């Protein structure tokens, strides 16, 4: 598939992000999207064809592969990339709504349509919460589906129609495990960045609201 739409989305979000948000965009684009397209996708490209069992019982190899890999690592990673990037559309849509509203009324209604304040601040905070939630859900999903973040060299399968316990071998397990660890590390980094940005925005605008109230009282 073409990842151009995701690249354009991240570029658009970058214009309305804080400094921490721009770091998040860079991490997603460079360390996740580019790594996925350039390297990881090729490693898992023929994972089913290269999955071998020491028996030629019809259907046994397919059933064992489905048992140990109910969802392909690389497809789940692609879905994760899409899901964690989608909440950023909320911010883009909200800014577009502000710009259209100004055109409709033919007057300046906001200091800047892309400035994070008021309703746009709430939308931005919701997008951060959703992105963090999706990251955590997918990490748990990876852990549950594959019994941890390891890719074994050998797996033993006794699922029917296999006549007995058979040994199955996974191709390039060390290489796959390195990229899986890289996936987990970048996901954790993105969670930390999202939580940092969320805390920063809440703290910043809490101080701003407090100062406004203080000034009003003094006046």
Using the coordinates above, name the CATH class: Mainly Alpha
* Number of helices, counting only DSSP H or I runs of 4 residues or more: 7
Order of helices and strands: HHEHHHHEEH
Q: Biggest sheet: strands, sense, closure?
A: 3 strands, antiparallel
If you had to describe this structure to a student in words, what would you say it looks like?
It contains seven helices and three strands; from the N terminus they run ααβααααββα. By secondary structure, it is mainly alpha-helical. The protein has one domain (3-218): de novo design (two linked rop proteins) (Up-down Bundle). α1 packs antiparallel against α2 and α2 runs antiparallel to α4. It is elongated, with a radius of gyration of 23 Å.
Per-chain topology:
Layout: H1 4-14, H2 19-43, E1 52-53, H3 60-68, H4 73-85, H5 88-105, H6 118-145, E2 154-157, E3 166-169, H7 173-218
Antiparallel strand pairs: 1-3, 2-3
Helix pairs in contact: 1-2, 1-5, 2-4, 2-7, 4-6, 5-6, 6-7
């Amino acid at each position: 598939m073409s990842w151009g739409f995701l690249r354009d989305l991240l570029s658009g979000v970058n214009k309305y992000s804080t400094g921490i948000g721009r770091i998040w965009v860079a991490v997603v684009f460079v360390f996740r999207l580019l790594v996925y397209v350039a390297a990881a996708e090729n490693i898992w490209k023929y994972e089913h064809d290269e999955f071998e069992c020491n028996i030629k019982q019809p259907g046994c190899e397919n059933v064992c592969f489905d048992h140990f890999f109910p969802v392909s690592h690389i497809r789940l990673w692609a879905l994760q990339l899409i899901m964690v990037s989608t909440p950023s559309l909320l911010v883009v849509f909200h800014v577009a709504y502000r710009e259209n509203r100004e055109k409709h009324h033919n007057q300046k209604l906001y200091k800047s349509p892309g400035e994070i304040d008021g309703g746009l601040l709430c939308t931005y905070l919701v997008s951060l919460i959703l992105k963090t939630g999706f990251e955590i859900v997918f990490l748990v999903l990876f852990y549950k589906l594959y019994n941890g973040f390891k890719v074994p060299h050998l797996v033993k399968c006794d699922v029917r129609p296999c006549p007995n316990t058979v040994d199955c071998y996974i191709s390039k397990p060390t290489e796959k495990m390195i990229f899986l660890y890289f996936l987990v590390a970048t996901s954790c980094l993105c969670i930390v960045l999202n939580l940092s940005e969320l805390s920063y925005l809440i703290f910043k605008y809490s101080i701003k609201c407090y100062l406004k109230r203080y000034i009003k009282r003094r006046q």
